[in-house]
Amino acid sequence: MIVTSVKLKETMEEEVFRPVEAFPHTACYGNMSIYPGGYVPWHWHPDVEFAWVLQGAMHVNTNNHSFLVRAGQGAFINSNMLHNMEPVPGPDVIYLCQLFDVQLLYGSHKSIFEQKYITPIIECKELEAMQLDLSEPNQRQILSLLQHSYDAADRSDYGYEFVVRSDLSSVWCLLCQEAAPVLHAKKIMANPGEERVKKMLLYIHSHYREKIGLEEMAGAASISVRECLRCFRQNLNTTPFTYLLEYRIRKAADELRDTNKPVTDIAYACGFSGTSYFSKIFRKIMKCTPSAYRRSQQEQSKETAGREKEVYR
């Protein structure tokens, strides 16, 4: 499945599309250069995620960790983990990923698979994410199995679900071995900034159409403006105002892509006081004008539809 953007709910949860409703697994192909802003925004999902880079390089960021994933490398991102992905200068970042509900692996509730292998990983707050590298034997095998399962899901031949579940079960067993040092290490103290940031982000997502300032954002988490600035810098490596602008532009980009509303109406609906400033910020973040972005997305949509028809013909 080709992905052209990451669609988020107001709670920052990604709207993960399931090709088959009764099979809790999604395999995606993404080119980060065509996403709004050219990156994957901060978000979360109940699914666990495995991603691996085919071309370019990207930073994977969580609340407490950040690492670089180059072509040939991959990453594991834990369930319900707030994270984003940003490209580094160079070739377009092209990557594959699989997202799935871990119940796919453990089957029945309280099974030995859930209690012994799944729950320790899912509930380990220290294991926000993990880099996967070809130089490590277990990790190299994980990446090979991920490629095999992705190809099976992409072809969707009869019985592919068994292949995917089998491969991902083997992946999880190897992941448990790789995660053992973290699982057995002394637990770190929770970072109170994480919850505060989530509250402020939820406030921004609910009120981005309005005129809001630092006082309102800080108030959403019952902290001072100074602490608000510190939390954003420490946890997201950005400022509240920059995040607000980028979020407004992402929402505007969605409107440009999915509707025929006039640019002026979209600008005001997304919290901008005028089209001139909106166009300036849009060009700065998206590297093109709103009108040019709408045209490119329409063309991309036609090309994607054509490729999908070719695949399923």
Structure, described:
With 313 residues, the chain is α+β, with helices and mostly antiparallel strands. It contains eleven helices and ten strands. It has helices at 103-106, 112-122, 137-155, 160-184, 192-207, 214-220, 225-236, 240-258, 263-269, 275-286, 290-312, and strands at 2-3, 25-31, 40-43, 48-55, 57-62, 66-70, 74-77, 83-87, 94-100, 129-132. The strands form two sheets. It has a six-stranded mixed β-sheet with strand order 1-2-9-4-7-10, with helices on one face. A hairpin with a 3-residue loop joins strand 5 (57-62) and strand 6 (66-70). The two termini are 15 Å apart.
Radius of gyration: 20 Å
What is the topology, as strand order, of the major beta sheet?
Answer: 1-2-9-4-7-10
Mean pLDDT: 91
Annotation field: number of helices: 11
- Runs in which pLDDT lies below 50 for 5 or more consecutive residues are 308-313
- Structural shape: globular
Name the structural class: alpha+beta
What about the largest sheet?
Answer: 6 strands, mixed
- Roughly what percent helix? 40-55%
Q: Quote the distance from N terminus to C terminus.
A: 15 Å
SSE order: EEEEEEEEEHHEHHHHHHHHH
Q: Report the β-strand fraction as a percent range.
A: 15-25%
Short description:
The chain has 11 helices and 10 strands. The protein is an alpha+beta fold.
Write the layout of secondary structure elements.
Layout: E1 2-3, E2 25-31, E3 40-43, E4 48-55, E5 57-62, E6 66-70, E7 74-77, E8 83-87, E9 94-100, H1 103-106, H2 112-122, E10 129-132, H3 137-155, H4 160-184, H5 192-207, H6 214-220, H7 225-236, H8 240-258, H9 263-269, H10 275-286, H11 290-312
Parallel strand pairs: 1-2
Antiparallel strand pairs: 2-9, 3-8, 4-7, 4-9, 5-6, 5-8, 7-10
